[in-house]
Records
---
Amino acid sequence: MLDVAFADEKAINLFDVKRAVDTLTMHVLAAGIFGQDLDFNGGRQRVAAHNRKSLEVTQRWILQQLLWIILFGNLKIPAFLRTFLPSTIREVLETKEDYQRYMAEFAEELQYNDDKTKSATNLITTIIQSNDKAREDKLVATGRRMYLTDHELYANLFILNMAGFETTATTLGFTIPYLAAYPAVQRWLVEEIDSVTKERNSNLYDEVFPQLTRMMAVMYETLRLRGALQHSFKVNPENQTLELSDRELVIPGNTYFGVNAASLSRDPQYWGPDSEAWRPSRWIEQDSDTGKESLKDAPEGTIFVPWTVGPRVCPGKKFSQVEFTGTILTILSRHRLEAQAVSEAMHVLPIDPHQRIKSRHDAFAL
Ligand code: HEM
């Protein structure tokens, strides 16, 4: 993927990094959720029959216009009346239908092609198989059906795709420049990667992933400073009693409350005077006898909740950790990242005009 994304470039800027990790993340989701192994050379650019745009263009548009989709995506307007709608609303409805057709097409392909006796290796097959079974068994609990209608199934796949895209892409999009800007951290991480992947044929998920403690520390540290969810708002439907150390606190039903994740993960009172610095080693503790490293919890008094916690914890937490690990491990197994001062790029790099990233190896192939 990286060879294809940057084949002609000697050095890349922060926008190129974001563009590449966006494309990567979309492909991972297409494979993990839909079992679609699309090639990087245009697989997602194919425009399917009956659709106006490719899956990639459709998905990018939806992400950029998410608010419009939420506001107007469910309008039921007959086709003959659509010409009278403002063009943006028409685009919202048509793009949403394009997207649903792609999902339906993938689902249909899987139903025809999949060997039902095999265990599923992608999410959509798992969901469809469990849902079909629940539907056949007419599963009902406390008077409510326990299976999804087709519409609900597609809505869930849509949410999975949306929730899994920007979050992971942003985490990778920040981590790659951080590693370039902090060469000592990069060397520290490479040391771990090299020692864990010495066995060339190791299985990434079962054997390598659990041993990459520094890798997870790097991910945590990026999420601590650049977490996708900075504020989370919830409402409790009924009165709720919280047991505090010295008293009980009753929160009346229908109270909106927010969790300020940004402040929880940066407050110097808990994280120390360098709380604003990107320092992944803060997450590591070492056993004094064995020298073995393990991940530390957040400091006492605060909480680290980038995926939230409790019954609504992010269901893609492990998925994102494995995706992050696979991506960074692949890059650092073959390349080193280096930040380069380039003044001519100042006008296109509003984040930090002096930072560019280049490979230390041959012609560029980040
Ligand atoms: C670093 C990556 C990720 C982060 C930081 C993250 C974070 C979160 C957070 C904080 C929530 C809860 C939002 C709230 O309660 O207001 C959430 C929900 C969710 N996430 Fe993730 N997520 C990540 C990756 C993924 C991936 C890869 C997937 C899917 C493959 C995914 C699927 C979902 C879904 C479906 C929900 C909604 C769950 C519900 O409504 O109960 N996430 N995520």
Note: The chain has a mean pLDDT of 80.
---
Amino acid sequence: MAKILLTGMIAGQQLTGERPEYPTHPEQLADSFLHRLLRRAKRFHHPDLVITGGIVADTPETEQCLYKELADSQLPFLVAPKSGEPPREQTVADITVTVDAVGIRVQNAAGWNRIWRWGTDRGKTGENLPPLMQAPFIFLLLETDGAGGVVLRQEQLRLPEGLHLRDLHNHTPYAYCCENMTVPRAVAMGRWVGLEGMTFTEHTLHLFFSRTACLEKVPWRRGLAATDQNLAEAYSRLCREQGDDFARAGLEIDIDWQGKLVVPETVLERSALRLAAVHSLPEQAGTMEEKRLAFLGLTEAHLRQKPDILAHPFRVLRGEPEAWTATLWQPVAELLARYGVAAELNFHHGAPPPEFVSMCLERGVRLSFGGDSHELGMVGDFYAHLALLNRLGASSRLDEVLWRERI
Ligand SMILES: [Zn+2]
Ligand SMILES: [Zn+2]
């Protein structure tokens, strides 16, 4: 049994020109697309081998960056040789692949064989496998069944058509945990992967408190009164610079240990989306019962303020025993139903418990899709979100189950 992930050529271009922040072609975000593919492969497909139809880049740095993505994934990979170099052959279980600059032959001992070519020249043998950086960004998965049969599946990095999805949780360079997000690049990524729009939701904590203050837990301990900076205007200007309705400026709002929101009322009023998040529990909550009361108390204090969405409802309990966390799923689903607030599906760290999501669905609590993107490859990456709803039998009625922004 073997599983091979196969992509066409990967072409990368450095962002240059008069407006280097504004990519005009997916090739200018090739590393982010590749990162997205490899993250999905690692999390869901577990291939024994990743094969690409060669790496072509405009600068040695870009080429190096693409090879680094492949190496960092720690997945075994094979890159097609450049023109003039000898073919490369590799065997995985009963599958043998022979790759050269023109294409690839895949065959097994039972006589199954297929040929794909990287280029688009007519008259050559085999099907064309388009470059990965060409919408809808397709790749193939070949899986052997151990009895001579091969199952072939095509997937794509772009969202399926017709779902009308917005990504309602994205960060900007103002987040201390941001990796490579800039607003123009994230918006370009969002459009290419098929989002209908996106909302930036910067941490209120990072807009109103320095990095040091956050590390010292000042915002939670002392609340908004201890603010030592104000980046709210600069942040909303950054989001507005996009000049159309595709991107909006919302907030991911924290709550201090006294149960007060860490955001001034005037800033809250202007926010296009209110994402409530509990990121910290009081240090004095030592026993499990104290933690439970603190968690439910802060969650409800948030919901009383009528946010649109409760972000990653249980992330603050990461590391606690699941059997214990599971006792909180039902109370939180009931609180969400009572206050009419949506629950976010967020896979940035871990995954939402399917049982909790079912409880929400049973109670009519709406769900929202958040990429929680800290790096560009995560923008609008809803593969896991859709897979979860599919598993719960809810993916065919998105209009009924999803919380949608009123625009
Ligand atoms: Zn968060
Ligand atoms: Zn976030």
Note: The longest helix spans residues 288-304.
